[in-house]
Amino acid sequence: MSRDRAIDLAMDELESGRLLALLKRRISYRTESRDPERKGALEDYLREDLSLSLERQGFTCEVMRHPDATGPFLIAERREDPSLPTVLMYGHGDVVGGLEGQWDCDGSPWQLVERDGRLFGRGIVDNKGQHTINLAALQAVALARGKLGFNVVCLIEMGEEVGSPGLREFCRDNVARLRADALIASDGPRVSEARPTIYLGARGARTFYLSVKARDGTHHSGNWGGLLSDPAIQLVHALGTISSPTGQILIPQWVPERLSESVRAALAGCEVDGGPDGPEIDPNWGERGLTAAEQVYGWCSFDILSLGAGNPSAPMSAVPDAAEACCQLRYVVDIDEELILPTLRRHLDRHGFSMVRIREKLDGRFPATRLDTGDAWVRWAARSLEGTTGKKPAILPNVGGSLPNDIMAELTGGRTIWIPHSYPGACNHGANENMPVSVLNEGLRIMTGLFWDLGEKSEQQSLPRNPDLTAA
């Protein structure tokens, strides 16, 4: 059997309708992890669907719980030979709320529908569709070769959309089973619909509240305006010291000293394209002198996620008693995350805003991670993708969003390779979440070719191993 034969088998799963039927069934599970009434669906997705499917592929599966987690975990293992490379695959089966009634054409988020060359359904890109593609590619390689030629450990969690509570603790408790030479997984978007993409980590995120509490109760603005401090005014001016009117971060410790040459080289020629349904980029926003790709993949950004004082829906003629903003810093590996909030405290005090309180949002913290673009596993993956598609893939130092990639890096000695099967216009947290059929098609071919290559002895010789795994 050959590489081309493996890809043909994978494409037959798609063209025969079997893969779409599988996706349809997985989308139908209402695995909304923020809804306590859906706890049964989270368990059912792993036990009734994924476990049974993977066991037919020769995996040993175990659904497990952890006291710190809101949802269950699945560990699926297919170990062919301890001397062979071991790959960790990750995905999540939980989704955000379905937003019933808001989808086009009266569509249901729980029913997979193909329309205008796109597949619509909650979870089709985030993340059920993406890990389904990868597992289908594994199956095609095993059928074509009679074996994979490497070992696989698959970890699926059911709490990613609520901040992955308990994931770190679960992985540490099961490190002997989850340790691998590299992570190969899929989440997040490509840089554009048409360009295959590899990213090597994730920007970090720190989410926090800034608030001013002036007094208890509001007071008539005609009688007390000009005599009482207005917490909304104080907060707005404090926020103005953090960012310029055009989005430049004004706290030096929150941005890199400079964009490194390796990051510039990796992002050269990379364009951020949300497609026809994506928002138009504001050319005068953000750090001066950076391309759009450098801004979102190589730099840091600060945003005010919410801002409130008084009653916005029914304003009263009263000086408010309090004001609050929920803020977020997305940051790259150059930033010391332990200094982010202490630096903010000193900055506000220095500007006369000691009345502003800082409170961290406990489920809004992700460390930044990044694998070196010159790593041998990265070069190998890029060759494989180009060999399958004839296209040079975009290689991003990290994705713009945040993922629990730091946990995966601990298990793999830092080697984390993400190959997304989504695109910027996927609407993955809104109504009309969708995956282009072209991305599904190409993603299936890419992953089948990649897993075939990984099983080749000649390819394995160039790939360094995780010393923690070989020592174990």
Number of helices, where a helix is a run of at least 4 consecutive DSSP H or I residues: 16
**Order of strands in the sheet with the most strands?**
1-2-6-3-7-18
CATH fold naming of the largest domain:
Aminopeptidase
Give the CA-CA distance, first to last residue. Answer: 34 Å
Uncertain runs are: none
Quote the beta fraction.
Answer: 15-25%
Radius of gyration: 24 Å
What does the largest sheet look like?
6 strands, mixed
| Count of distinct strands | 19
Query: Which structural class is indicated by helix and strand composition?
Result: alpha+beta
Mean pLDDT: 95
List keywords for this structure.
single chain; 472 residues; alpha+beta; Aminopeptidase; Alpha-Beta Plaits; six-stranded mixed beta sheet; four-stranded antiparallel beta sheet; 16 helices; 19 strands; 33% helix
Structural overview:
This protein has two domains: 3-202 and 369-471, Zn peptidases (Aminopeptidase, 3-Layer(aba) Sandwich); 204-255 and 300-366, Alpha-Beta Plaits (2-Layer Sandwich). Helices cover 33% and strands 20% of the residues. The strands form six sheets. The protein has a six-stranded mixed sheet. Strands 12-14-10-15 form a four-stranded antiparallel sheet, with helices on one face. A three-stranded antiparallel sheet has the order 4-5-19. α1 (3-15) runs antiparallel to α14, α4 crosses α14 and α12 crosses α14. It has 16 helices and 19 strands.
